[in-house]
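Re: the pair you flagged

First of the two:
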Amino acid sequence: MKSYWHKKPLLVRGAIPAFELAKKLGEPLGSAISPEELFNIAGDDAVESRLIKAKPWTFSNGPFKKKSIPPLDSPDWTLLLQGMEARHPAAAKILSWFRFIPDARLDDLMISIAGPGGGVGPHFDSYDVFLIQMSGRRRWRISEQKDLSLNPKLPLKILQNFKMEKEWDLEPGDMLYLPPHVAHDGIALDGGCQTWSVGFRAQSYKEILQEGLWRLAESLEDIPELEQRFADPQQRATRFPEQLPEEIIAQVSTKLKELKLDRIETFLPGITAYLSEPKPQAYFDGSANHLSLKEFKLQISKRPVIPHPQTRLLALGERIYCNGEDVTSGQDQQTQVAWSKLAAKRSFQGLLGKTGLGNSLFEAYEAGWLVF
């Protein structure tokens, strides 16, 4: 993080040592997710998937029937599958390896599977990315060029003037980290080439502030004093009626200071809630979670509950936000402790106090946000 994060590319050979160890034992590892499984997932309309073909460049969105996906040995195609941490435990496991970076920055894990020559063309990302080779080989060409203009004649965001500066062939287990705006082009060298991409979120300041302000405005409804009407018994006769009165300016200024709306800590709850919201494509189904509150308390004392792979948890001090909601305010001490452990360790098992209806942990379980 000190030397490379957001600064310069880093190639890590053998980032997943199991691949090299297995090769030495004469038992080469394949990807944890087979091509057949990936093709099945591509047919799910709840999954964001894209099929890209080169020569000429074409682009289509899923879901895809198996017959519409080219054979593994067919050249010049790539299938991209987003949010794979919610679809397979191996993808969720690998995503968990990157928690040395704050959860608020982590986005998702995308898998690309390609035929020989497959890729998405030379491009750049506006966010950090770790590219992990999981099956077959991929040739990465990168450039830290300043010219990031795109070819306007193509259906994809492909650089118009890509000038390679470095090139590596990545074997299974190798990893390449790229900071934002580093131009790169990945070309599959083998059929069934799989690259797993761990991506990060980078919202604009405008987006963060807008979302924080919106939630702050909503919270003002909980302050009854603000229902009082503006009054100006000290207002004098004026020669400039078109001007906003000094009395309004003074009183609003006083209210802002009382509410601490001029200080960052007032905005942070709304910003944290926003950053903890799941992706728009996230789908939660709590219909299978049919335990009663009493049964839930018994089960959680015996086995751990964990966040659903698409659940986002963030902490602001001792307050925990889950999928955009503050889940610790107004909760008993043991429930607050449980949420803190869930946010920090992604798992909780233990005793809950005399919790009644309205317990946020149980409600999250019923909504499908938490699973055993």
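Second of the two:
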Amino acid sequence: METISIVVQAGDPLTRAGLHTHLQGSPGVAVLPPDRWADAGVRVVAADRLRTETVAALRRAAADSAAPVVLIVDEISEDNLLTAVECRVVAVLPRAAATAENLTRSVRTAAAGGGMLPPQLVGELIKHVERLQREALSPAGPGAGGLSSREIDVLRLMADGLDTNEIAGRLCYSERTVKNVIYGVTHRLKLRNRSHAVAYALRTGVI
């Protein structure tokens, strides 16, 4: 059996130590020190939820390493899941189910090029893929109003009265990303401001 080198990353020492203990005794698994994360074949990342800073760290690591990620998390939404997939997350394990056996199975699946998701998240991911396919085939382009799914998400939250910081937190984007999305919409569609962008989205029926 080929040894899988992994690194464990967690926001607190207690969680990191617990995961390290679970995995260290698994046959065919070698746990590397945290500072050797770039050498790992699989990365195990634990978080209570995908906060902005967690996503930023995942994006930075994904830019420097092609290693798949096993994510252990308390809760995750559809939007968070899509963001996680963009950051090389291939397996999501609820914290309550993070036993030594489940952890090892997730790591081996990730190392073999596979993926593992809770059943409810699989359904959400399939629905999103189907929605993207419909948008791609639509004569109007990305969406009925010429808007991408990311732009629609941002505009929907703007319509709900959220500010830039709140939108960034809800979608796990940086504030700069949200501002770029808003600028892209208003500039491309020649809209005057944020209110005009929301009104356009409402008028075209995309939110």
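The mean pLDDT is 83.

-B.
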